[in-house]
What does this fold into?
Amino acid sequence: MFQGLYEILYYLPIIGFSSLLVFLLVPSIIYVANQYQLFDNNQEKRKKHCYGICRLGGIAIFCSMVITMLLFPGVNEIQSINYLIIACMMIFAMGLKDDLWGVNHGTKFFIQLLVAFMIVMLADVRLSSMYNIFNIQELNMGESLGLSILVIIFIVNAFNLIDGIDGLLGITSVLVGLTFALLFISMNQPAYASLAFSMTGAAIGFLRFNILPAKIFMGDAGSLLLGLIAAILSIKFIELNNVGGDQVVHFNSAPAIAVAVLIWPIFDTIRIFILRIINKKSPFIADDNHLHHRILKLGLTHFQATFLITCIYAGIILLAFHFRYLSNTRILGMLLIICVLLNMSLNFLTSFSQRRVGIPV
It folds into this structure.
């Protein structure tokens, strides 16, 4: 009991401080945005708001997380924390420039590639095995490097792509951060648990201004940063449960659990890329065909859609954790079936809803 109480008292200040910093910084950012007319472009067809909104919330999230990393001993005990902070600064700077003036896709990809390379090579955050998925075990250095960079870039962009309705990315970040934090606590990894809690706190503080109704967006600076932290947490969670490593293995199905924790951004990104390619469109050109857009077409408000997604998302995570003793292949197969059924159900409900009001499908 005393150990559990100690852990609560140890991590609560991290969540509280991270959340408080965002809570205090956002009003000043909104004030400056109002003074200099730094608003989101609400004239785009896919935008769901009829008024200009500041999209510089990533500044508050970045300041909160970096200060928390430097201030609290639990976070800065992470090996190569300096490289992680530099990577966060680089991805934030690129995202902020995109929020203010725009960045072309080539520059975005180059910066993300550079950040991922730094994380993998200098911070040694990389996947060294496939855990018998597709009957593949250990990876050589080249394969490990390529796969890890690909995973990091994919997760970073997946977080960016789901930031489409009020509160969705904030809630997603809370679920991801809190889940990984609890998993790391159970593995006796306080440093990474602290990093996950700092992400959770920053997202909680931001939600106060991003829902009912949204007063600010986190923009690319915030979404890309949170995606980078999520990628780092997921890879470290998998590697700390490497069956062939020296450490104690707590979760034999760590890769499948990590996929479950990130299932909403992963599934939505894969789905939207496939649809765009089928329709002979660029995978990188934004549209309104994301899962959250489809749910809005059912007649739900932003809050209702976010709440529904949160319930489904949390349910999938709990289900995967319940079956954590199964093999990675079985859990991944179960997640695939759930995602396919979810997509089919949503397509049916959307078509039915639009027929009722006489809108062509």
Remarks:
- The chain has 14 helices and two strands.
